[in-house]
Design a protein that fits this description.
Keywords: Membrane, Transmembrane, Transmembrane helix. This protein is α+β, with helices and mostly antiparallel strands and about 150 residues long. The chain is built from four helices and eight strands; from the N terminus they run βααββββββαβα. The chain has a four-stranded antiparallel beta sheet with strand order 1-2-3-4, with no helix packed on it. It has a four-stranded mixed beta sheet with strand order 7-6-5-8, with helices on one face. β3 and β4 form a beta hairpin. The model has no long low-confidence stretch (mean pLDDT about 90).
Length: about 150
């Protein structure tokens, strides 16, 4: 088993100017309320977080190399052995198909890999991964889907 492809690390949705205006209106409202309640540290934190968010929102995601091998899964420089995963699911109903891997970690238990469907045959990938992991229907974490819908 050896699959290899390049994919963006996340789905990129170009932001329109009104998206940035909306984010800053919300941030300024929170900052003003924080100042009124004499919480300057929180006001500064909201300002810095909003600045970082708007600067990062302009950046297109970098391309990552994904490899599925007999030993495990490699995403750029990170290697995950099969023993670190419990199950998998291939989500084909989205804009870009995704390989969802559920791990046995308590923190960030899901690994989501975007699949280049022009390079990879979904059924071959499903059959190959099913020799290593149990196929179990799962979905992207709710918070990730919310952020995706909001354009983050």
């Amino acid at each position: 088993m050896n699959f290899s492809w390049e994919a963006p690390e996340r789905i990129f949705i170009p932001k329109k100017p009104d998206w940035f205006v909306t984010i800053w209106i919300i941030a300024v409202t929170i900052i003003v309320l924080a100042v009124i309640f004499n919480n300057l540290i929180f006001a500064a934190l909201v300002f810095v977080a909003t600045l970082a968010l708007t600067l990062n929102a302009k950046n297109e995601p970098k391309m990552v190399e994904v490899q599925i091998t007999e030993r495990g899964v490699r995403k750029d420089d990170l290697f995950y052995p099969w023993s670190s995963f419990i199950s998998f699911w291939i989500e084909e109903d989205d804009i870009i198909p995704k390989l969802l891997l559920e791990s046995n970690r308590r923190f960030l238990p899901h690994t989501v890999l975007l699949i280049d469907e022009h390079v990879i045959d979904m059924e071959e990938l499903r059959q190959a991964v099913s020799t290593k992991l149990e196929e179990f229907e799962q979905h992207e974490p709710v918070l990730e889907r919310i952020f995706e819908r909001l354009g983050f």
